[in-house]
Design goal:
The chain has one domain (30-188). It has four helices and 13 strands. It has helices at residues 30-35, 45-55, 168-173, 179-188, and strands at 4-8, 15-19, 58-59, 66-68, 71-80, 89-95, 104-111, 117-119, 127-135, 138-144, 149-155, 160-167, 176-178. Strands 3-4-5-6-7-8 form a six-stranded antiparallel beta sheet, sandwiched between helices. It is globular. The protein starts with a strand and ends with a helix.
Length: 191
């Protein structure tokens, strides 16, 4: 049974039915609402607001997109479960001129031992590629882009750290997933 909230409008006794799911967005900033608009997630409004703030994004003048360092930036959040513990990790994939030849950048947030989301600052730059290989229960990551070698990151138990470069040939022969595909599988519990 769907639960509805009744909202009284300033124009008198008119009423508008609003789905109760919007109640879960109480306290959500406009920027966080836009960033997570298409993201199925269990994050609280406070967590969404904090991640939006940590990214350093600002709303564009038309309030339909984002800006960063004066440049127009597209941004979308993806909730995933990298280590299959039931807690969500969050990738934010951004695109625009700010990101050079790849045109894309990524930010990754993982809960630390105090259950606070921590930005994995080493995992940044180009296109995030999730490998089928794992280290300490987390999949290995590559940040791809133009070129013939790409940085490989492995989980050390507390954070992702650079371990070595991987060749384009090795990456082409590896079993990989995009962040978007991994997020879809996480939602189905099949990652």
């Amino acid at each position: 049974m769907a639960v509805l909230l009744v909202v009284f409008l300033c124009s008198g006794a008119q009423q508008k039915a609003v789905p109760a799911s919007n109640a879960s967005e109480a306290g959500l900033t406009e920027g966080a609402r836009l960033l997570f608009a298409q993201t199925p997630t269990k994050l609280t409004p406070a967590q969404k607001n904090l991640l939006y703030k940590k990214l350093g994004l600002q709303l564009s003048p038309d309030r339909k997109g984002f800006r960063m360092d004066g440049f127009a930036v597209g941004a979308k959040a993806y909730a995933v479960d990298l280590n299959k513990d039931g807690a969500e990790e969050v990738f934010v994939v951004m695109d625009g001129l700010l990101f050079g030849n790849t045109g894309e950048g990524v930010a990754l947030f993982i809960k630390n031992s105090q259950q606070a989301y921590e930005h994995q600052v080493e995992v940044a730059g180009g296109i995030a590629v999730i490998l089928d290989t794992q280290t300490n229960g987390y999949p290995d990551l590559v940040i791809a882009g133009p070129g013939f070698e790409f940085p490989l990151y492995k989980w050390n138990g507390k954070s992702y750290v650079y371990t070595r470069n991987i060749s384009d040939d090795d990456l082409q022969n590896a079993t990989t997933r995009t962040v978007e595909d991994y997020a879809k599988l996480s939602q189905k519990g099949k990652q």
